[in-house]
């Protein structure tokens, strides 16, 4: 895919947390950064003056911006670390070393130790994290230490060695920090119960501990021990902001490829996430044009082969949202819940964002491409001979048969053209007759367009079922336009689309853009018609209420309403108040009229 101008790329970035990557003209990665808001952060590089010469040089070299959207700032921080370590970009200074973010380890041993570490050793131990701050790790370990007495020594506490009395309790036992399992002073079952409670804490389930801390803080505050209260408050803040799970780094997941797809009528958008030792090290999305009516499964199978070849992936397992055929050597997993499902959801989120950005970019670069695509789709969906670039939709409005009116709204290239909207007072029909009203307005509209030499629409939509459609067809027939303009009716209940002479309605896919545009037309015609109808009714109400008074004209009514805002207030006004607005003579007429009715 051709690289778009930087201005276009910047305009379509999302306002979401994530990681951005800058590439030069040769496709070499220059820099990886994290952001709370991708659009604001990336745009700032191109709008601010940079004090650093290094950043200034880098900005001049940027030709392409890629990004990965994640769920939170913490995930952005961890993903940035993964990508910098993997790609070693030239303009990154920090995080290039082999240091990683810390984990909390529950060691795989009898009477397990709990400690912080930067190394993941595959020996069956449990690792929780990683944590973007050692402050969080220390707060959690302080909490654990305060609640449970655990050993810190690295002895091999096998049953045999304890029974033979190989070890003696150390200072930690005498200080009350350990219960002495090395001398058999603490049962293994009791110790393991404590470990299970610690697992819950590092997973983020520390509601009871937080309550305990709040009570301690309150007690310190009541005793005026404000420094101690503040120290505990800091711990509460850290725990409340603690995020136990990261989507982008998970030690339980090893080397896998993750694929997801989102598609529309013409294209499929496939996202690929590559995981190495549980950490995301690559995200890539491709746009695939549908040649025929390919299903999502077919498109995804093609994409999996192409992407795995392009990035020389040898992973033996892939995660996908539905069943695909990826060959005999690859294990296909369709996660339903848990950490694996979260990874697939993250991939899907990136595919969705990519699709949105491509739409926005095309609207900027080639505005007509988007319109052409929709028009071609409408022509195909509605079985038309030409693209419906100019559509008109009619709707009748009458409430209990009063003030019958109709509205005609006009869409050009799929968008409302409000200057072309027209409203009609029904002239030839007595009472509430929707069919006759529809025939009248369709006839009047196109007779006028023909007389004035104006262009006719390619498609007419009437709001209603077979009856209204037949009335519209009758009007076109009278004008000699039947067969020259396509006309359809849309019934409200099930969004059925009727064609002249066809008893079986057409049902469009509920998600299709064609149906959305037809619904928008229908709703707009309804809104426009109802507004006109309401205005007409209220004006009629005014006429009957005020203008029936002999000697009072429209101008006087308007003046009064400007001042008093409603007929009710005019009725309740004193003669003096009325005179200040319309003069003594007319004020007397109105005042006496309402007094005589009391």
TrEMBL record:
Output a single Gene Ontology CC term carried by this record: cytoplasm
Instruction: Show where the UvrC family homology region profile domain sits.
Output: 272-471
Single GO term (MF): DNA binding
Q: Name one GO biological process term.
A: nucleotide-excision repair
The record's subcellular locations are: Cytoplasm
User: Any idea where the UVR domain is?
Assistant: 207-242
Which keywords fit this entry according to its UniProt record? Answer: Cytoplasm, DNA damage, DNA excision, DNA repair, Excision nuclease, SOS response
Pfam families, per database record = GIY-YIG, HHH_5, UvrC_RNaseH, UvrC_RNaseH_dom
Q: What is its main location?
A: cytoplasm
Q: Which SMART domains match?
A: GIYc (SM00465)
Annotated GIY-YIG domain ranges read 15-93
Matches recorded under InterPro entries: GIY-YIG_endonuc, GIY-YIG_endonuc_sf, GIY-YIG_UvrC_Cho, RuvA_2-like, UVR_dom, UVR_dom_sf, UvrABC_protein_C, UvrC
Family the UniProt entry places it in: Belongs to the UvrC family.
* Functional summary from the UniProt entry: The UvrABC repair system catalyzes the recognition and processing of DNA lesions. UvrC both incises the 5' and 3' sides of the lesion. The N-terminal half is responsible for the 3' incision and the C-terminal half is responsible for the 5' incision.
HAMAP family, alphabetized = UvrC
Question: Subunit notes for this chain?
Answer: Interacts with UvrB in an incision complex.
What protein name applies here?
UvrABC system protein C
* Organism of this sequence: Salegentibacter salinarum
């Amino acid at each position: 895919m051709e690289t778009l101008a930087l201005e276009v790329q910047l305009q379509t970035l999302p306002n979401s947390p994530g990681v951005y990557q800058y590439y030069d003209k040769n496709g070499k990665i220059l820099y990886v950064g994290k952001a709370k808001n991708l659009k604001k952060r990336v745009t700032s590089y191109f709008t601010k003056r940079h004090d650093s010469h290094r950043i200034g040089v880098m900005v001049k070299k940027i030709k392409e911006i890629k990004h990965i959207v994640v769920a939170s700032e913490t995930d952005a921080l961890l993903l940035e670390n993964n990508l910098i370590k993997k790609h070693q970009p030239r303009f990154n200074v920090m995080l290039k070393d082999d240091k990683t973010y810390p984990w909390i380890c529950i060691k795989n041993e009898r009477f397990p130790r709990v400690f912080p570490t930067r190394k993941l050793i595959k020996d069956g131990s449990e690792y929780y994290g990683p944590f973007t701050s050692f402050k969080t790790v220390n707060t959690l370990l302080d909490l654990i230490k305060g609640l449970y007495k655990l050993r810190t020594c690295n002895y091999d506490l096998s049953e045999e060695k304890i029974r033979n009395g190989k070890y003696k309790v150390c200072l930690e036992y005498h200080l009350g920090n350990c219960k002495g399992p090395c001398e058999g002073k603490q049962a293994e079952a009791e110790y393991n119960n404590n470990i299970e409670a610690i697992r819950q804490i590092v997973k983020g389930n520390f509601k009871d501990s937080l309550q305990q801390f709040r009570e301690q803080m309150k007690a310190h505050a009541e005793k005026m021990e404000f420094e101690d209260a503040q120290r505990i408050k800091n711990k509460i803040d850290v725990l409340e902001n603690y995020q136990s799970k990261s989507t982008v780094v998970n030690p339980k997941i090893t080397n896998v490829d993750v694929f997801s797809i989102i598609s529309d009528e013409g294209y499929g958008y496939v996202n690929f996430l590559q995981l190495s030792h549980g950490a995301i090290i690559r995200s890539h999305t491709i746009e695939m044009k549908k040649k025929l009516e390919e299903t999502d499964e077919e498109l995804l199978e093609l994409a999996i082969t192409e992407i795995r070849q392009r990035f020389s992936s040898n992973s033996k397992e892939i995660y996908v949202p539905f069943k695909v055929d990826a060959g005999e050597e690859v294990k296909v997993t369709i996660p339903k819940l848990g950490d694996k499902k979260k990874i697939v959801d993250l991939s899907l989120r990136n595919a969705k964002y990519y699709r949105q950005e491509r739409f926005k970019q095309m609207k900027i670069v080639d505005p007509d491409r988007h319109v052409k695509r929709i028009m071609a789709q409408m022509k195909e969906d509605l079985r038309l001979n030409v693209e419906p670039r100019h559509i008109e939709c009619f709707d009748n409005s009458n409430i209990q048969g009063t003030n019958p009116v109709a509205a005609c709204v006009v869409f050009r290239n799929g968008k409302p053209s409000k200057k072309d909207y027209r409203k009609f007072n029904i002239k030839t029909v007595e009472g509430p007759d929707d069919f006759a009203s529809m025939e009248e307005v369709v006839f009047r509209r196109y007779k006028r367009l023909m007389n004035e030499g104006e262009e006719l629409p390619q498609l007419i939509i009437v709001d209603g079922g077979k009856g209204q459609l037949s009335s519209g067809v009758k009007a076109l027939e009278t004008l000699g336009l039947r067969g020259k303009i396509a006309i359809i009716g849309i019934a409200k209940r099930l969004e059925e689309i009727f064609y002249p002479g066809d008893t079986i309605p057409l049902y469009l896919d509920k998600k299709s853009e064609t149906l959305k545009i037809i619904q928008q037309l229908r709703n707009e015609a309804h809104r426009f018609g109802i507004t006109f109808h309401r205005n007409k009714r209220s004006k009629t109400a005014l006429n009957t209420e005020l203008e029936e008074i002999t000697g009072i004209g429209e101008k006087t009514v308007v003046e009064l309403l400007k001042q008093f805002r409603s007929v009710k207030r005019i009725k309740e006004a004193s003669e003096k108040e009325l005179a200040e607005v319309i003069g003594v003579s007319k004020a007397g007429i109105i005042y006496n009229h309402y007094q005589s009715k009391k």
